Amino acid sequence: MSSEETCRLRENSPSQTGYEPEDAPRARQHWRAVLGGQSPREVLARMLQGDPLDMRVVVSRRLTERAYLFDADRVHLRALAHCARRALRYRGNPPLETWLAELVDLALFELLREDAAAERRGSAPDAEILAAFVELARPLGLEPTAMGRVCLAHNLLREPDRQAFYGLVIAGRSLEELAKAQGVSGVEIARRARHGLEAVLIAAGQLPGAQVAAVEVEQENRLGAESTSGVCASTEAREPECTQGQEPS
What we know:
63% of the residues lie in helices and 0% in strands. It is mostly helical. The longest helix has 26 residues, at 96-121.
């Protein structure tokens, strides 16, 4: 991947073109008025009117903090659905900011599982999903479907590798800065980023197949491990149905 392609990827990444975090999110003391109601559908309708809980800000922040490449709109809508289903049982604990972040994390994990399953089946992505990759794919000379595979490969990386690649390539942070933030050596950050780069290049069809199988096996193992290790443990402890993908009724 050339330096010019790296710059374009950084400028057009889904998390960069989504919702930017605000310096001072609006006060959320009114959450009772927003989350109260007779049904999830009523709560969802209220949350779609002006984003009263700043869920878009939370989505953008979590995409950056967890170094994921997802369309922010897609994550936002899924997180809203989860929020609407759980709203009537929320009583202020944990703090609202923490609760919303957990719901966004749940949405991220569900979408990752769905995307990985669709890739295994060879299913064609929905038109709405492909549309999110058009602008990002064009400057790199890739088709939207290939760009989708690149983002999936990145999202399936182990978190340390994902953080290193995202930090260096997408966010443009220095090796020294990342090493200090993550408490490891610069050599280790470089090794992790290299692993991320290999996965992305394989997904883009720019590396021979010799390394493909090993990367795919590791990604499958990582996704399976997260599925059984309580990725949403804190949410599940309060909401046993947290991994279901039902729409609000």
